[in-house]
Design brief:
Blueprint lengths: L4 E4 L5 H13 L4 E2 L1 H4 L6 H11 L2 E6 L7 H12 L3 E6 L3 E2 L5 H4 L4 E2 L4 H13 L11 E7 L2 E6 L4 E5 L10 E4 L10 E6 L2 E6 L1 E5 L2 E6 L6 E4 L2 E4 L6 E2 L5 E3 L4 E7 L14 E2 L1
Parallel strand pairs: 1-2, 1-3, 3-4, 4-6, 9-10
Antiparallel strand pairs: 5-20, 7-8, 7-19, 9-11, 11-12, 12-17, 13-14, 15-16, 15-18, 18-19
């Protein structure tokens, strides 16, 4: 099925999750949830990892208990490593500062206001093609490295690309490239004012302020049609649809823009989730 969806939740939200699970099932969504899909005597953590890997969508139920749950955060980290589409669903009020950074970047669906309206929004996102559903997600990159080809939907606001990029997966999108020509962190991707930019090396800013910079050992350049230009160091360069970013003699990225219809989402409160 095209809409495989994993539900990550705290046991203390069992009542809400039960209602949501039933509503999604009735709408024809293929839901994976632990109480239905883990057989007795099975290795439950392994089953969860396999289920996340097989799912298209990762729905995280935001509540005061889930953001403090070690198991929920492990599930979130696994989904991030596998570049799954994250769909944050708010079931109960939470202080914004306590929500994992990866979930702060994405528009939330609020079930605290009207269940039916929120359900329709969630169904629209689940049924949309990958990369579609939250207005902000409409781009991807394709990585070619040696004989390997991988595709990444750009669902985070910030990515570090290299052999072993610094940072935690909850704070940055991390794209690992096994290539001896590459630096530990060879390039950085940033979404700013609705447009994607790339920089040479580890280029980190926070709230518009420069924090640190370390250039890649071999540099990189952008090709578009027959034109080619090296990246200016200490500078973000905007990307255009079809740009090819040459990382090394054997690795390159292709940037693509997806043309999609944005789905409606409720406005959020950046102090608390209500």
């Amino acid at each position: 099925m095209a809409n495989e969806t994993f539900l990550s939740y705290s046991r203390k939200d069992y009542s809400f999750v039960g209602l949501l699970y039933k509503a999604l099932q009735q709408a024809g969504i293929n839901i994976w949830i632990d109480w239905e899909d883990i057989a007795p005597s099975s290795l439950w953590r392994q089953e969860i990892c396999v289920a996340i890997q097989a799912s298209k969508n990762f729905v995280f139920i935001i509540s005061p208990d889930s953001v403090e749950s070690e198991e929920c955060l492990k599930e979130l980290n696994h989904a991030l490593l596998l570049n799954k589409r994250l769909i944050p669903v708010v079931s109960r009020q939470v202080e914004f500062s306590k929500i994992p950074p990866a979930l702060r970047e994405i528009n939330w669906i609020f079930f605290t206001r009207d269940f039916d309206t929120a359900l329709n929004q969630l169904l629209a996102v689940i049924d949309a093609p990958l990369g579609v559903g939250f207005e902000r997600v409409n781009n991807k990159i394709i990585l070619f490295s040696g004989d390997t080809e991988r595709e990444f939907i750009l669902e985070r606001n910030y990515y570090l690309i290299g052999r072993n990029p610094p940072g935690k997966i909850q704070e940055f999108g991390l794209i690992f490239v096994t290539d001896s020509y590459m630096s530990r962190c060879h390039a950085s991707l940033l979404k700013r004012d609705g447009q994607w930019h790339i920089a040479d090396g580890f280029f980190y800013e926070s709230s518009g302020q420069f924090i640190s910079y370390k250039e890649s050992k071999n540099g990189l350049k952008i090709k578009h049609d027959k034109n080619s230009r090296p990246l200016t160091r200490h500078c973000w360069v905007p990307l255009a649809n079809g740009d090819e970013i040459v990382l090394s003699p054997v690795s390159r990225l292709i940037y693509r823009e997806l043309h999609t219809q944005p789905q409606p989402v409720e406005p959020d409160d950046r102090e608390t989730v209500t």
